[in-house]
Amino acid sequence: MAIRLVACAVGVVGAGIVGGCSSPFDTTRDLPQSHARSLPDNTESRPISVFREDEAESEAAVVTLHVDSLPEDYVRFALYHSPAVEAAYQRWLAASERLPQVRALPDPRLNFGFFLDEVETRTGAQQSRIGVSQAFPWPGILSDREDAAAMAARAAWRQFEAARLEVTERVVETIHEVAYLDGAIRITAENLELLSSFEEVVQARYRVGAGSHPELIRVQVELGQLEDRLAQLRAMRPTYVADLNAALNRATDAPVSPFARLPGRVASVDGPGLAEIARRSNPVLLALDERIEEQRIRSEVARKEGLPDFTVGLDYIVTDEAIDSSIAESGDDPILLSFGITVPLWRDKYEAGVREAMARRLAVSFERADEANRITASIQRAWFEHTDAHRRVRLFETTLIPKAEESLRASLAGFRAGETSFLDLLDTERTLLEFAVSAERARADRGQALARLNRLVGQPVPTQGKAITEALEDETPGTGPDEDTP
After folding, report:
1. Can you point out the beta strands (E) in 205-298?
2. Is the dihedral of CA 217, 223, 226, 231 positive or negative?
3. Sequence-distant contacts of 479-483: CB under 8 A, at least 24 apart
């Protein structure tokens, strides 16, 4: 009978307290709700690259790379396989698991006691005591702890978004570097073929006495230099490919097909405008905003830590039969309901806790201001590099390269007519080669600067044309649609 009564007492207190993990002062939340609370308010969807509950949907979303893969496919592949992205996701998942932990009440306490010298009472000798007690923090402190943990988890989600943007920037920058190298190889090979045709002409002229030996030696030297340059460019490609494969989390020697000329895209918003967008969408700044709110809530928690906690207990005392068995209550086991309250007497530690929380909040606030200044300056620099590269692209495409091509045609016609020296023809061909390679470098610089702008702003920036980073538009939560300007 005693055991049944104890089990009943433990069940009443334990099942209601431990099983529900609830407080009479706070509402309950289960684990799925805590995960939902760990996402920022403006997050409507989750990226398929890391949420793999639905295997069929995940398998359909997996991107495989092949010879015809577009740059967008490389970005999606990297987001799905990147260890950095997965690590950031796991950090968010770990932070979200803190919510049910801080929400729960302290574990109940079960006490057993045995009288070494039994206490004889009118109803019998008291032999042992079994008790259970449960502590309840001050009303609201559990919900505040959960709110603070939710803010920390939201900040971790923002860091996850930042990791995705960083991986995207890395992949896009490397793709532009490989594309530049492929363009330089293609242009150098074309010029080598052109210079080889020049050598045939010079040899023909030399055989009939119309050309000089120094001209033939000069063209052969130029050919040797160009062949060396082409060999160097081709030897460099495995290094660039290894960088790209590292960003894709593939073997460094995995093949990457040559890229055609990538689509050029130009930002249609100036630096100050992009900085204003970044204040609302940069995930690093948003993470700091979440941390500021977390510290504000923690200051409330620190204040409530200095308020009393309550304890409710139930004790069951095992009593033997009385010496006088004629007593009506002989052998009855008494049950004691107790209430307790802590006395937060040492105020210094609680006041220090409040001051600590306030100092941490101020520290994060100043950190946020410093980060905003740094991002604004970085956006201005990246915007300059982007627009300056675009200026150089337009200069080469619309002015320098057409003029160099026209000069080469004129020099070639004059050389055939005997009006232009071969050295002038070589200089014209070399100039056209340098202009064409410089144009490819400017295109790569323009795309790489745009990739940095996308990361700093926190979303694809409004542009003219089509960009690689549109691959993020359907997958990254919390970002707005791309506002292309026709």
Report:
1. 266-267
2. negative
3. 479/281, 480/281
Give Cα separations from 149 to 36, 296, 341 (angstroms): 13, 12, 27
In the chain, what is the greatest distance between 2 CA atoms, to the nearest angstrom?
146
Name residue 133's beta-bridge partners: 109, 313
Torsion of CA 98, 101, 104, 107, to 10 degrees: -160
Which two tokens mark 237?
């490609």
Q: What does DSSP assign to residue 316?
A: E
The CB density around residue 140, as the number of other CB atoms within 10 Å, is: 16
Closest Cα partner for 7 from 92, 113, 130, 97? 130
What is d(CA 437, CA 189) in angstroms, rounded to the nearest whole number? 12
For 169-307+347-472, CATH number out of 3.10.20.310, 3.40.640.10, 1.20.1600.10, 3.40.630.10 equals 1.20.1600.10
| H runs (alpha helix) in 82-124 | 83-96, 98-103
Among 234, 197, 252, 263, residue whose Cα is nearest residue 429: 197
Beta strands 310-319; 463-464: pairing state:
unpaired
Q: Output the tens digit of pLDDT for each of the chain's 486 residues.
A: 444 333 444 343 343 333 334 343 343 334 456 677 778 876 654 544 444 444 434 444 556 887 777 888 899 999 989 999 999 999 998 998 888 888 888 889 988 888 776 766 656 676 778 889 988 999 989 989 988 999 999 999 999 999 999 999 999 999 999 999 999 999 999 888 887 777 666 666 655 555 566 667 777 777 888 889 899 999 999 999 999 999 999 998 888 888 877 888 888 889 899 999 999 989 999 999 999 999 999 999 999 888 898 999 998 887 767 666 666 666 567 788 889 888 888 888 888 989 999 999 999 999 999 999 999 999 999 999 999 999 999 999 999 999 999 988 888 788 777 777 777 888 888 899 999 999 999 999 999 999 999 999 998 888 876 554 444 444 443 333 333 332
Q: Give one word for 140, left, alpha or beta, with left for phi > 0 and alpha for psi -120 to 50.
A: left
List the structure tokens of 131: 């008790």
Closest by Cα among 58, 51, 469 to 265: 469
Pick from 244, 245, 85, 240: nearest CA to 166: 85
The Cα 145–Cα 133 span in angstroms is 23
For residue 453, the tally of other CB atoms under 10 A from its CB is 26
The CATH 1.20.1600.10 domain(s) of the chain lie at 169-307+347-472
Q: Of the candidates 152, 28, 140, 15, which has an alpha carbon nearest to the alpha carbon of residue 97?
A: 152
Strand order in the sheet with 335-341: 109-121, 124-136, 310-319, 335-341
DSSP state letter for 314: E
Distances (CA, A) of 167 to 159, 465, 480: 12, 22, 19
